[in-house]
Amino acid sequence: MALVDPQGRTIRYLRISVTDRCDLRCRYCMAEQMTFLPRAKLLSLEEIAIIAERFIARGVNKIRLSGGEPLVRRDVGDLVRRLGRHVGAGLDELTMTTNATRLAQYAAEMVDAGIRRINVSLDSLDPDRFRYITRHGDVKQVLAGIAAAKAVGLAIKINMVALAGLNEDEIPAMLQWCVDQGHDLSLIETMPLGAIDEDRTDRFVPLTRVFDDLSARFPLLRDNHRTGGPARYWRVGDSETRLGLISPLTANFCDGCNRVRLTTEGKLYMCLGHDDQVDLKGALRDGGIDGLDQAIDQGLSRKPARHDFRIEAGAAPAVARHMSVTGG
Ligand code: SAM
Ligand code: SF4
Fold first, then answer.
1. Ligand 2 mean position to 279 CA, how many Å?
2. N or C terminus of the chain: which is more exposed, having fewer CB within 10 Å?
3. Atom 12 (ligand 1) nearest CA
4. CATH of the domain at 76
5. Does some domain include residue 1?
6. In terms of residue numbers, what domain contains 272?
7. Are 3 and 60 in contact, with CB atoms under 8 Å apart?
8. Average pLDDT value over all residues in the chain
9. Cα(327) to centroid(ligand 2), Å
10. Helix (H) or strand (E) holding 148
11. Digit-coded pLDDT (tens) for 72-108
12. CA 142 from centre of chain
């Protein structure tokens, strides 16, 4: 049976966090000393595939693998290949969001498996800033990953979280770099997910402000491209580059929401901004496919109408879990 929520929204998009672990520690995403889930609590890759395939059978046509860093999970290539078999036969698209530190190693395998587009997080092109934001990352490694992906024909969208005092002044240069390289760019407002070591309020940049600045420097033409996701898009002049603004704080986008999220622990979150979830791992282990279907239906019947994000000084994060748990 198709996946339709109480608001009448049809769910077509499943985002899967294949691991909550990461080899970087981006300041807005994680605390330096993060506690990760014990491996015994994780879904096996086989279970992830079974759940994903059930969603495909029920009408999901787009899957994004994310994390944590998806490419740090051992054997993730097996999952990519297995899900890739559904591309063109149920799935319109299989994609991944990655920090690209290991992308050079995986790019060819991804294309073989049917992946055509990936999102790469890159918050600065400057080596010192990049190291500071990620707490120890090497931007050269990421750029090598991006180059390898481009060489095998993957379309690339750069994700950049706008951070006051850290990279806000670099946004025009990043857009120009993306135009020169033929990549898309999505700018993201920092979201109040999970405790980190700092107060996000200090770093929050409203994208309305960024947009005003960018439109004074670049010819930006509204593009009606819709993904059912939070981004609004602009074409940069006559270039190939599309600029996306993901602004959950300054523009609510929930009416068109078509997605749900599966964590590496097997929990299905119906909304990034709420704590409610259903346990698909338990349902599958105890009740097989029928149990899984029932749990999915139960979850869907509770999908909230909208998120409730706010960035306020001293306020606790909207939800306690980090983006890495639900796969940003
Ligand atoms: N590790 C991969 C990466 O960084 O691309 C995939 C997972 S990461 C959680 C997915 C996206 O979420 C990244 O683009 C990251 O910048 C973004 N992100 C993480 N925490 C965020 C937060 N609190 N607010 C806004 N975006 C966040
Ligand atoms: Fe890791 Fe991605 Fe979070 Fe950075 S944003 S710490 S790369 S999961």
1. 24
2. N
3. 328
4. 3.20.20.70
5. no
6. 13-326
7. yes
8. 91
9. 9
10. helix 139-151
11. 999 899 999 999 999 999 999 999 999 999 999 999 9
12. 17
CA distance 232 to 228: 10
Tokens at 175, concatenated:
């857009």
Centroid of ligand 1 to alpha carbon of 130 (angstroms): 14
In a domain, 218, yes or no: yes
Phi, psi of 97 (to 5 degrees): -110, 125
Q: pLDDT-derived band of residue 251, with 50, 70 and 90 as boundaries?
A: low
**Encoded tokens for 283:** 């349902």
Paired tokens of 124:
């600065």
In the numeric block, the tokens 């992946």 are attached to 115
Name the closest-CA residue to atom 3, ligand 2.
29
Is the model more confident about 249 or about 207? 207
Are the C-beta atoms of residues 14 and 62 closer than 8 Å to each other? yes
How far apart CA 152 and CA 154 sit, in angstroms, is 6
- Say if 182 falls within a structural domain: yes
Tell if the pTM clears 0.70, that is, is over it: yes
How many structural domains does the chain have?
A: 1
pLDDT for the residue numbered 277: 94
**Nearest of 304, 226, 309, 262 to residue 51 by alpha carbon:** 262
